[in-house]
Specification:
The chain is an alpha/beta fold. The chain contains eleven helices and eight strands. Helix 2 links the parallel strand 1 and strand 2. Helix 2 packs across helix 11, helix 7 packs parallel to helix 8 and helix 10 packs antiparallel against helix 11.
C-alpha cells in the first residue's frame, strides 16, 4: 500500500503537508498527563500540527492511558495524531493495531514497526507482514532501515546493538515493504551525544535518502537529544518532516520536579510542570516552522 492509498490517514496527511511546506512537525514522547496536556496546549496556542508518541510501555502500563491520549488527540482544536514509536514486538503491534478510539477509528494513526533488532532480511520480512496488518486497519507505518545506535527510556531492544548507517539500497528495500514513513540512520543516535560537538550527522547521506524516497515515503528524525535549532533546520532542509523529541522538551520539566517535589503541593507541581513543558514545545514549534500551519 502506498502513501496515496492511505491518503485519508491523518498522520500521512500531516506529514505530506509538512513536506510540501518544508517545515517540521514535533513528535513528542509522552509519558504522563502533564506531557499530554502541555503538548496539546502548545499546539493550540501556536496553531501547530502535532504528533504525540507513545512507547509500547504505555500499552503494558495501562490501555486506559492509550484511550485517554487518543481521546485528547481528537478533542484538540488543531490536528493532533497519535503514534506508537519503536514497537519492537510483533505480537504487541498486532494487538495495538486493533485498539479503537471512542469514535470507532484506530486509536493509533501510525505505528513504528521497528524490527531493526533483527538482521536485514528478517527485518524486511517481518516489516512487510506487519505493515500489511496495520494498513488493513487504515494505520500508517514507519520503519528503520539500518539501525540507529543507542537506547533511551522506552527503547531498549536495540540499546546494546551496533548502529548501522542506512544505505540507498535499504531505502528501496524498505519502501517496497509498503511503509509510509522512514526513519534513517545517518549518524543520529538514541540517548546522549555528550555535547553538540559530538553530533556528527552525514548530511550527504540524508540528502541521498531524501532523493530516493521523495514522493514515496516521508522521512522522520530520531535521536535529537541536545540538538540546537540550526542542526534541526539542516535536517528539515534535507527532507525531514517529523522531528521526534524527548529530552529536548522534557529536561526542564525533570529539573523542575527534582528541585521542587519536596517543596511544593502536588497541584502546584503538576500545574507548573505542565507550563514548563508547554513553553518548551512552543519554542520548538517556532524553531521547526510548524507554528501557524494548523
Amino acid at each position: 500500500m502506498t502513501l496515496a492509498k492511505l491518503s485519508e490517514n491523518r498522520a500521512v496527511k500531516m506529514l505530506n503537508a509538512a513536506a510540501e511546506g518544508k517545515y517540521g512537525v514535533l513528535g513528542v514522547v509522552t509519558y504522563n498527563m502533564e506531557t499530554l496536556v502541555a503538548c496539546i496546549k502548545a499546539a493550540e496556542a501556536k496553531r501547530s500540527p502535532l504528533q504525540l508518541l507513545l512507547f509500547p510501555w504505555a500499552f503494558k502500563y495501562s490501555p486506559l492511558f492509550i484511550d485517554f491520549v487518543a481521546h485528547a488527540c481528537r478533542k484538540a482544536t488543531v490536528p493532533v495524531t497519535l503514534h506508537m514509536d519503536h514497537a519492537q514486538d510483533p505480537e504487541v503491534i498486532k494487538q495495538v493495531a486493533e485498539i479503537k478510539a471512542a469514535d470507532g477509528t484506530p486509536a493509533f494513526d501510525s505505528i513504528m514497526v521497528d524490527m531493526s533488532h533483527y538482521e536485514k532480511e528478517e527485518n524486511l520480512a517481518k516489516t512487510k507482514e506487519l505493515v500489511a496488518i496495520c494498513h488493513a486497519q487504515g494505520i500508517a507505518t514507519e520503519a528503520e532501515p539500518g539501525r540507529i545506535e543507542g537506547g533511551e527510556d522506552g527503547v531498549q531492544d536495540t540499546a546494546e546493538l551496533e548502529g548501522m548507517m542506512t544505505t540507498a539500497e535499504e531505502v528501496d528495500d524498505f519502501i517496497a515493504t509498503g511503509i509510509d514513513f522512514l526513519a534513517p540512520a545517518f549518524g543520529n543516535v538514541h540517548g546522549e551525544y555528550g555535547g553538540v560537538e559530538n553530533i556528527k550527522l552525514d548530511y550527504e547521506r540524508l540528502e541521498s535518502i531524501q532523493k530516493k524516497s521523495q514522493g514515496k515515503v516521508q522521512i522522520v528524525l530520531h535521536g535529537t537529544n541536545g540538538f540546537p535549532p540550526d542542526i534541526m533546520a539542516k535536517c528539515i532542509e534535507r527532507g525531514v518532516t517529523r522531528v521526534n523529541v524527548n529530552k529536548l522538551v522534557m529536561d526542564p520539566y525533570f529539573e523542575f520536579m527534582e528541585e521542587n517535589q519536596a517543596k511544593k503541593p502536588l497541584t502546584n507541581l503538576v500545574g507548573e510542570g505542565t507550563d514548563i513543558i508547554q513553553q518548551a514545545c512552543e519554542e520548538w514549534m517556532d524553531h521547526i516552522g510548524s507554528s501557524g500551519k494548523a
